[in-house]
């Protein structure tokens, strides 16, 4: 069960990232770009609570 949730979160986060970027462009970049840049990584670490070693393995 946790594996399917992990795969689903890996698919949802890039889509969320694209949606946030599109919304940011529509708003005329009124929000800091740095928060939007690091938001997917922060969400990934918060939701799954994986350690840095697993993250490095996932990134290759």
Give a quick precis of the structure:
The chain is an all-alpha fold and 60 residues long. The protein is 82% helix and 0% strand. Helix 1 packs antiparallel against helix 2 (33-48).
Structure description:
The chain crosses the membrane at residues 7-24, 30-47. This is Colanic acid biosynthesis protein. Keywords: Membrane, Transmembrane, Transmembrane helix. By secondary structure, the protein is an all-alpha fold. It is globular and about 35 Å long. 0% of the residues are buried. It has 3 helices and no strands. It has one domain.
Total number of helical segments? 3
Count of structural domains? 1
Q: Can you summarize the main beta sheet? A: none
Strand content: under 5%
Percent of residues in helices comes to: over 70%
Q: What integer is the average pLDDT?
A: 68
Distance between the termini: 24 Å
Give, in order, the helices and strands. HHH
Based on DSSP secondary structure assignment, what is the total number of beta strands?
Answer: 0
- Going by helix content, strand content and strand pairing, the class is mainly alpha
Q: Using the CA coordinates, give the radius of gyration.
A: 13 Å
Shape: globular
Low-confidence stretches: none
How does the SSE layout of this entry go?
Blueprint: H1 2-26, H2 33-48, H3 52-59
Helix pairs in contact: 1-2
What are the defining features of this structure?
globular, Colanic acid biosynthesis protein, mainly alpha, 60 residues
